[in-house]
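Question (not urgent): is this output format expected?
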Amino acid sequence: MTPTPRSPQPPAAPPFLPSPPSLPQRMADPLRTDQARALAEALGPLRPPEPGEATSRNHRTHHELERLAKVVPPAGVLLKDPEWMAALSACTVLGDPALYMTVVNHYVLCLGSVVDSASEQQLAAADLAQVVGALESGYRKGVFLVTEIGDANSHLAIRTTAEFEPQRGEFVLRTPDPGAAKFSGVGVPGRPQSAVVCARLMVGGSCRGVHPFLVDLCDERRTSPGVEISGALGVEALPLEYALVRFDGARLPYDRWLRGTARIDADGAYHDPLGDDPDRALRRTLDVGRLLWATVPSAAAATARASAVAALRHSQHRRSHGRLAPEAPVLAYSTQQRALFGAAAEAFALNCAATAALDIWQRSRDARPDATAEAAEASQGGRAAETAFSPWASVDRRLSAFKALAVDGAARISAECRRRCGVAGHLTVNRLSGYAGFAEAFDAAGGDNRLVLLDLGRALADEAAPADEAPAGGSSRPADTDDPDWWLSVVGTLEQRLTAGLRTALEEGRQQGLEGMDLWNPLLERTRQLGQVHTLRLAAQSVVDAVSAARGHDPAQRALVALYGITQALRLAGPLQWTGVLCRETAASLEAAADRQCTRLAPYLDEVAARLAPPETLCATPLAAPDYAAALHSTLTRPDGGRS
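Got this back:
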């Protein structure tokens, strides 16, 4: 076994990180835009916090939020600009995943709810204008309170109430019992905080669905009247202070109701031209999640790229003393190559998917300037999906799918890279644990991935098969795994066959008189798997769309695309064979095909790393240094304060 060769200087090639033609080329890498440079300068070098650090994590990220507020545009501009939002997501998650969670709560969910649901008349009201101004300056930190701790799928059965009192023209917020307490990254009082609270609107004794309300939780000294904030709760995966929030008669002025098109007239009667169906009200309230799902892939792709590059460079420079090849770099071993080149290939694919998600979001915004959930239904090709397991797929099926895809991929990449770096992969200063924690936390945050996949699979199976869909037994896929279209054809055929199989099982169950839980419970794993395969098909399509212009001109990119598809096929070798998409011989050849692509990528190692790597100013780590020991020592201090 010989060491991996140092890469020669390859001929000039198109960028690795392309965008579909519908977005400008500069969107290809949100980490190298003017916006990213402005954010990096504002934040300075963010270091990962050490365990046991005395300063409150929420207060620390609140301070960083104020620094960000000095350079980002006003919320009404920021939240409609895909370049700014991609850069803000990618830059903050690389510097500190806990800061990214703060940014999501503050900008995307809290201010996003205000921008999407408050009218110009509301925003002109002195009280609301003052709070929004404090949020935009970063003086007040914003959070989003939707999850209630007592039940699973609490979004579908929120019990916090906002009762309208017509005599005073105010709303009164109440938490009926401890199980309805809200959970989020709320810090202990000491810095001003406000929250968008999702609550059941009660008018004249009738529930009018779930609506958002902007509530001041606390100022520098105390909580607001009628608001209770618990002591801090820790979450190791994404270390912020979290808390439970309850309401006991908290009063809100009328304009703190982020009411969209709804209103309550002088006689205390509720009106909404879009209808008062509770499911529609919930979708409108949670429509703010679309921007979250559009930008989480940018954050996930950034951590995946950083993880893959750091692990590749560490393995390239770290010597092994195994008896097979003493003094050889760790990356000389084929197992390490397969794992880390595979991680780089998937990180590349996630970057393509992140760009596709932004494109979908921008197109839907351009098509629906009123930003209502009803118009989103049309952008998905028909009525919104019926809410079953969670509300997410019914709000936006495609963007929720991209969120689940990106977080799952980032979790797999960061975990594998950390594993391949040994003890070094677990040191806080090397950042891989923080990136793994981000992905682990967002598996549930922003819409639980498993529930999203279940609803995706259910929606696909419940739809009528398109008239032009080929029979489930046929396929015209390319036979060559080197072909950039191979994996897209394979996973598309797999999705088609899984869909047909689940439809058949549902029809048989309904013929037996089954419905509800009796019908779906035995089929849940098949439903989840279909949802997952659907997300992988979306990723494969985004890769093919992104690299189509560079086919035949960039050997490293071609090898990455092929390796990505082969690696995904190996993960799904079982379903691919039992559905008949791949024969046994083709499945058995995938191992050799993956090794072949690693051999092709080896001469381009430095180029692959350089093209995927984030700027060092955003996430410098000793792990990627040629002399890891020296770089690690340079980060340490002696007990007397000197350098070690």
